[in-house]
Amino acid sequence: MKSFLISKNDAEQRLDKFILKKFPKLPKSLMFKEIRKKNIKINKKRTQPDYILAEGDLLELYLKDDALQEKEVHYDFMSASKELDIVFEDKNILLANKKAGLLCHPDGKVYTDTLIERIKRYLFEKGEWNPTESETFTPALANRIDRNTSGIVIAAKNAQSLRELNRLLKTREIEKYYLTIVHSVPEKAEDTLCAYLIKDEKKNKVSVFDYEKEGSKKIETHYRVVDYCNACSLLEIELKTGRTHQIRAQMAHIGHPLLNDGKYGKEQGRFRQELCSYKLVFNLKSESPLEYLNGWAFELKDCEIIKKYKEIKENEK
Predict the structure, then answer these.
(1) Which residues are 97's β-sheet partners?
(2) Could you tell me if 50 and 197 are in contact, meaning their C-beta atoms sit under 8 angstroms apart?
(3) Among 52, 93, 150, 206, which is most buried by a count of CB atoms within 10 Å?
(4) Phi, psi for 17 (deg, rounded to 5)
(5) In sequence order, what are the residues at sequence separation of 6 or more whose Cβ sits closer than 8 angstroms to the Cβ of residue 38?
(6) Is the dihedral of CA 39, 41, 47, 49 positive or negative?
(7) Of the ranges 75-79, 89-93, 279-283, which one carries the lowest mean pLDDT score?
(8) Exposed, middle or buried: residue 44 (CB in 10 Å: 0-12, 13-18, 19+)?
(9) Contact between 305 and 276 (Cβ < 8 Å)
(10) What pLDDT does 272 receive?
(11) CA distances in angstroms from 273 to 74, 147, 163, 222, 252, listed in the order given
């Protein structure tokens, strides 16, 4: 027999899904049978497979120990680096400044030292998250940026916040701003670019078109020229849609590729494009558990992109 008190992060999911995640060796048919026989109870009472767990519920399983072999937890995140630049943190979210060159998630080659693994290690060592206590939730990123793009990434510290951040990003109630350096100077000082994008999954590269094509997705990007010199321009960009390589491909499409962009730009090879997700603004238009953040803006004051641009401009003198 085993019993569990349902935590906040394990709440708001079906009983049967929780049990199967917790005990992967338990046959599904046996689980349903034991629920019917009242050998699996919630708060000392009979329950149903589709019961939605609530924080504080007492789950009891009167089954043989060999059927209740818990899923083994491997703490691979403890191999990640401790280096983590935290922009903001509270009980629900963590904003991290990701350096260029660091992956957000494992990619099949790099498994342990990624941004999310560093965050897991940080929260584990801080005592805010323990995988043995939070059975079905692990800290997760609500957004992601390319490996060679730097800037602010949002992490959720609990399941409710992750769901809400995903919703707010989808409804554009979290505004994302980037700084970039592009070749030459756009004709217009400010503009909203609309086009269509198709992604080639095998090549991990996108193509941009001025007209809609089969399989394409609409993209919208607003840019503003912050400053310019002879060779390049410093732009602030607001993403209206969020597609793969959107900024890089769309700026290249209008003849102003990002500096050092080896995939879409004038430089060919392995370079780190000059692009930074430097500001997030919480502009909530609906009720939200995160409404206390409404109106808050988080900005990287000491952005490497600005330093790079100033160096370029100074060298032109």
Answers:
(1) 152
(2) no
(3) 150
(4) -70, -40
(5) 46
(6) negative
(7) 75-79
(8) exposed
(9) yes
(10) 83
(11) 35, 10, 31, 19, 12
pLDDT number for residue 1? 83
For 261, list phi and psi in degrees, rounded to 5.
-90, 100
Distance CA 184, CA 181 (A): 9
Map tokens 């001025």 to a residue: 210
Contacts by residues 307-313 (CB-CB < 8 Å, ≥ 24 positions apart): 308/181, 308/259, 308/274, 309/181, 309/227, 309/232, 309/234, 312/181, 312/229, 312/231, 312/232, 313/227, 313/229
Placement of tokens 């199967």 in the chain: 20
| H or E, element range at 164 | helix 159-170
Q: Which residue has the higher pLDDT, 1 or 169?
A: 169
What's the one-letter identity of residue 188?
Answer: K
| pLDDT higher than threshold 70 for residue 276 | yes
Q: How far apart are CA 129 and CA 83, in angstroms?
A: 18
pLDDT, tens digit, 9 for 90 and up, residues 220-270 = 999 999 999 988 999 999 999 989 999 999 999 999 999 999 899 887 766
Tell me which residue of 240, 143, 221 sits closest to 182, measured CA to CA: 221
